[in-house]
Amino acid sequence: MTAPVPVAGVEGAAADPLTAAIGKLTHELSVLPLQGEKLAAGDSFNLAAFTLTNYTFWLILAVLLVAVFFILGARRASLVPKGIGNLAEAGVEFVRNSICIDVMGPEGAKYFPFIGTIFFFVLFNNLLGNVPPALPGTGTVGTTFTWGIIVFLVYNAIGIKKNGALGYLKSFIPSGTPGWLKPFMFLLEIISHTLRPVTLGVRLFANMYAGHIMLGVFAIFCALTLEHFTAVGLIVLPLSFVMQVVLRAFELFVAVLQAYIFSILTAVYINGALHASEH
User: Fold this and answer.
1) How many CA atoms are closer than 13 Å to the CA of 217, on its beta-carbon side?
2) Per-residue burial over 208-223, b = 16 or more CB atoms within 10 Å of its CB, e = otherwise
3) N or C: which end of the chain has fewer CB within 10 A?
4) What single-letter DSSP state applies at residue 277?
5) Mean pLDDT, to the nearest integer, of 74-89?
6) Contact in structure between 209 and 227 (CB atoms under 8 Å)
7) Rounded to whole angstroms, how far apart are CA atoms 188 and 91?
8) In the chain, what are the domain boundaries?
9) In whole angstroms, what is the distance from residue 97 CA to residue 116 CA?
10) Which of 268, 272, 104 lies closest to 174 in space, CA to CA?
11) Cβ atoms of 119 and 95 closer than 8 Å
């Protein structure tokens, strides 16, 4: 185990317990090494030096939960599924029919394995992050940006395979565009496509991280009110508790919503690449 990392701004903040508590909260929500040491420049990789971070630990656990969920669902599959089997079948049908096929038509079914992987990976990480003391694997830009880049590479590869490299690039210029405007439109499309992995990554990360910050802040209000109870605490404590309940329910909704948004945008990008020649 690595030595604890000092929290900036916490030392000497005893006179301001709220500042100290928020500093501790942001520190705990940062990426902290749990085991191993970071490799220095020029060092060769070895398993002993691999850094397991707090977010990586919960991400691995979420992936294992996905595997266990579908293994149990497959074992209990029947003509009339029930329990986990029913839940797994409902989830698969939702992604295949309501995302893949609804967005891309019948040919969208063959892209279900990719989009389904994204949906359930994001969903289980988001949901697990709502179980204290777990952190969402999607709460770091490393994870969300990686998925954004993967989506970017996949849908562009599909577009090039379907339309040819030149045909795919030509689709960046809408038909009927005046000649003098074509270079400008092409540049805008290049910028738009380049920003897609960024927007995918930022949207998911920001929603998951910000939600935990808000939950943590109201938990701090509850704790400090109980520790330093005053007349004002009669108002602050119940309000903070109510906000904890409301935000927890809202975070569960956001966890599902963000998995849906990430997946449906992936389907939209793939559909656009498949029909690039029609633009």
Assistant:
1) 9
2) bbebbeebbbbbbbbe
3) N
4) G
5) 74
6) no
7) 37
8) 31-278
9) 11
10) 272
11) yes
CB-CB contact of 171 with 277 (8 Å) = yes
Closest CA to 248 of 206, 222, 226, 219: 219
**What 3-state class would DSSP assign to 134?**
coil
Neighbours of 234 (CB within 10 A): 11
Question: What gap in Å lies between CA 257 and CA 214, rounded to an integer?
Answer: 18
Q: What integer pLDDT is reported at residue 173 of this predicted model? A: 87
**DSSP code, position 46:** -
- Whether 44 shows a pLDDT value over 70: the answer reads no
Instruction: Give dist(CA 203, CA 39) in Å, integer.
Output: 30
C-alpha distances in angstroms, 4 versus 1, 34, 59? Answer: 9, 10, 22
Supply the DSSP string of 156-174, one letter for each residue. HHHHHHHH-HHHHHHTTS-
Check whether 273 has a pLDDT greater than 80: yes
Percent pLDDT > 70 in the chain is 85
Spatial distance between the Cα atoms of 123 and 269, rounded to a whole number of angstroms: 20
Q: What is the pLDDT of residue 78?
A: 61
- The answer to whether the CB of 214 falls within 8 A of the CB of 229 is no
